[in-house]
């Protein structure tokens, strides 16, 4: 299993596992888009704890979903990347458009807390 | 390391082989004089070059062949990725950050190859194919120049 998605409030929490490269992102893209369309999703949270590699294909995959969610007025957050994944995210400017969190619960608190405030 | 070690691989242009290329390169790096960050960097670079061969060179057709040549020597690691696919019209332009000929792509691949490796050379001819040569200097080689 390389993707596991569950709804928490208005946030779709997506836990990714393995190596986010060309093969994996091609495979995940239609599956995640189906989840995004199926559920009443506002925000998207990627839990990257289980990801041990990412390259430009993985970056493109995340950014593509970001555009989709953003267009519908939601936000996207990234949680729990390891050191090397974090470095690639940083270099590609991902943290300029979405916020990063140390773990899933911190990210959820920020995303779900935002709507009351 | 005492001996120069050259490994050649030939594989069909399917996305599964991108991970294979990383594993081979990672295994060769493990016995060399590199930091953990260097190892991460080189894996990203090879992943980018092989992905490009599959995705752009052969336009996701699985019947193309990708050639990977890795040479480990005391000075560092050389990686050559070749395809006989469509080729690149304007290499200089293709290497610019954020340039991509596919709408869903970021145009980050060459940026990563360039920033993570010490040398990057791209030769390409439209209709003939593309050859990417990259080199990462070992710690020993870096110390020698200082
Ligand atoms: N082996 C190749 N054969 C043909 N064209 C290539 C090849 N490699 C790169 N290109 C061309 O160069 C462009 C830039 O490549 P680069 O890897 O930087 O970005 P990308 O692959 O489009 O996007 P990303 O790498 O972020 O997924 C590609 O869009 C493509 O047009
Ligand atoms: Mg690329």
From TrEMBL, chain A:
- Please tell me the species this chain comes from: Heliobacterium chlorum
UniProt keyword Phosphoprotein, yes or no: yes
Query: What Pfam families does this protein map onto?
Result: STAS
| InterPro entries with a match to the protein in the record | Anti-sigma_ant, Anti-sigma_F_ant, STAS_dom, STAS_dom_sf
Query: What is the role of the protein in this entry?
Result: In the phosphorylated form it could act as an anti-anti-sigma factor that counteracts SpoIIAB and thus releases sigma f from inhibition.
Its keywords, alphabetically, are: Phosphoprotein, Sporulation
What does the record give as the organism's lineage?
Bacteria, Bacillati, Bacillota, Clostridia, Eubacteriales
Q: Which residues form a coiled coil?
A: none
The Swiss-Prot or TrEMBL record describes its family as follows: Belongs to the anti-sigma-factor antagonist family.
Question: What is the name listed in the Swiss-Prot or TrEMBL entry for this protein?
Answer: Anti-sigma F factor antagonist
Q: What CDD domains would the database entry show?
A: STAS_anti-anti-sigma_factors
STAS domain location is: 1-111
Automatic annotation (TrEMBL), chain B:
Is Iron tagged as a keyword?
no
One Pfam entry name: HATPase_c_2
Q: Which GO terms describe its molecular function?
A: protein serine/threonine kinase activity
Cross-referenced SMART domains, in alphabetical order? HATPase_c (SM00387)
Q: Which domain of life is it from?
A: Bacteria
Q: Which reaction does it catalyse?
A: L-seryl-[protein] + ATP = O-phospho-L-seryl-[protein] + ADP + H(+); L-threonyl-[protein] + ATP = O-phospho-L-threonyl-[protein] + ADP + H(+)
Residues annotated as domain Histidine kinase/HSP90-like ATPase: 37-140
Keyword Lipid metabolism in the entry? The reply is no
Annotated signal sequence range:
none
Q: What does this protein do?
A: Binds to sigma F and blocks its ability to form an RNA polymerase holoenzyme (E-sigma F). Phosphorylates SpoIIAA on a serine residue. This phosphorylation may enable SpoIIAA to act as an anti-anti-sigma factor that counteracts SpoIIAB and thus releases sigma F from inhibition.
User: Which family does this protein fall into?
Assistant: Belongs to the anti-sigma-factor family.
This chain belongs to which protein, by name? Anti-sigma F factor
Q: What is the lineage of its organism?
A: Bacteria, Bacillati, Bacillota, Clostridia, Eubacteriales
């Amino acid at each position: 299993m390389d993707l596991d998605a569950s709804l928490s409030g208005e946030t779709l929490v997506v836990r990714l596992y393995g190596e986010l490269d060309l093969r994996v992102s091609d495979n995940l893209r239609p599956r995640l888009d189906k989840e995004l369309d199926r559920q009443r999703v506002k925000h998207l949270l990627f839990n990257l704890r289980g990801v041990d590699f990412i390259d430009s294909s993985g970056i493109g995959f995340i950014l593509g979903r970001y555009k989709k969610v953003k267009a519908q007025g939601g936000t996207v957050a990234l949680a729990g990347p390891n050191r090397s994944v974090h470095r690639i995210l940083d270099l590609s400017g991902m943290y300029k458009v979405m916020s990063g969190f140390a773990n899933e619960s911190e990210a959820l608190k920020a995303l779900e807390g935002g709507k009351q405030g | 390391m005492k001996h120069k070690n050259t490994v050649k691989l030939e594989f069909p242009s399917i996305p599964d082989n991108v991970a294979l290329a990383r594993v081979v390169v990672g295994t060769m790096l493990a016995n060399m004089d590199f930091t953990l960050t260097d190892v991460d960097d080189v894996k990203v670079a090879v992943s980018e070059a092989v992905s490009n061969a599959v995705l752009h060179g052969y336009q996701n057709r699985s019947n193309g062949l990708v050639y990977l040549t890795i040479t480990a020597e005391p000075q560092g690691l050389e990686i050559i990725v070749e395809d006989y696919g469509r080729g690149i019209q304007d290499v200089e332009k293709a290497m610019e950050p954020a340039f991509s000929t596919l709408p869903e792509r970021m145009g980050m691949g060459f940026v990563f190859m360039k920033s993570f490796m010490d040398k990057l050379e791209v030769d390409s001819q439209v209709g003939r194919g593309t050859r990417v040569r990259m080199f990462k200097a070992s710690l020993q080689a870096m110390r020698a120049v200082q």
